[in-house]
Amino acid sequence: MHELHRPRINQLQRFLFKIELIQRRDKKKDGNFMRVRGLAAMQAGGPLVPYEFERRAVGAKDVAFKISHAGICHSDIHQVKEEWGPALFPMVPGHEIVGFVSEVGSEVKNFKVGDRIGVGVFIDSCRECEPCKSGLQQYCDKGMTGTYNGYERDGKTVAFGGYSNGFVINEDYALQIPSNLEMAEVAPLLCAGITLYSPIRYFNTGPGKQVGVMGLGGLGHMGVKFAAALGAEVTVLSHSESKREDALRMGAKEFIVVKNPEDLKPHRRKFDLLLNTVSAQLDINSYIQTLKINGTMANVGLPDSPYSVNAGALVDGRKSLTGSMIGGIPEIQEMLDFAGKHNITTDIELIKADYVNQAYLRTVASDVKYSFVIVTGKQIGRAHV
Ligand code: NAP
Ligand code: ZN
Ligand code: ZN
Asked: Is 162 in the pocket of ligand 1 (CB under 6 A)?
């Protein structure tokens, strides 16, 4: 090549490179920000298979992060199986998500690159109604925006969950993770943890209170740990004898195996608060008998069919039957800070992405100690299901 042509070629290269930069920037603006690999159920019942999709560009108030771990909640399984009604497919489940911040928008105040971050069951809400203004976003009058199995606030962008390697979230709906806790063991706190912490706090659990935890699974074992940390006397009501030692190690004082309603008869009027975390149908009337006068049963389990409640069981002792759903952003942060202070995390079985379908089967069979957590990041890319 003739020497004289060189400068012109360099100019041309610089020009082309500039165009490429502009195209990349515009692509970001268009929303093609993050190419993400995940696991999706393509139809009701699964199985979960590798799936690639895009997340929105990082807006001024958004934080992007690399997901390090995602917990498996029984609610993921209910939704994949369409046990709560029609669902949206392909579905990338996962609403117990932790990771490390990779990019922040220009107006983000609470996070910087490299920070630990968590996302739970919802990613937005209307922000204007009374529940939203008082920090109870989970009870938003217009409906919270779920982390998956629905649309974002714009009503058209499909929300994909945490069984993936990247996430974008408005910082107002993201949580700070205490630095002393293991990330993998924190993930299930974002749903299982807050779901028990919230009613435990609301019903003033503490010294002198008798608390019964029904079902020792992902949710139940967090109920034991939080209620015990607050000084209550905790009893686990389980159908799995094999969990006895673990329950006592977690802080329970007593462990009762319940195979049929007769097993509850000796425990009449024992509890101030019963936390029902069971994912399947059961005879709740026999459990209500174990409440003290003025006692409360708080339901957090969400089986696929309605309970049959006996009015007689409630009137005999002015008992209350109530429910509770996760917690609002301020309370989730309070729970995480409490967990950091008292060194409370979840007991987990750490798995790779190619084990998720097996993990679903084992969760349904109550065969997990006590939550499955997926190592995401590179692992999710290698998934073969
Ligand atoms: P999980 O890990 O599967 O635990 C459920 C536990 O229930 C099992 O470990 C088992 O405990 C007991 N159980 C299961 N099948 C049973 C049966 N046939 N009879 C008696 N006991 C049975 O599930 P999870 O992730 O903790 O979720 C529990 C439920 O809470 C699910 O329905 C989920 O959708 C719901 N949930 C609700 C909220 C909320 O905001 N309200 C949030 C998250 C999840 P034992 O072996 O000790 O008996
Ligand atoms: Zn959940
Ligand atoms: Zn609202």
From this structure: no
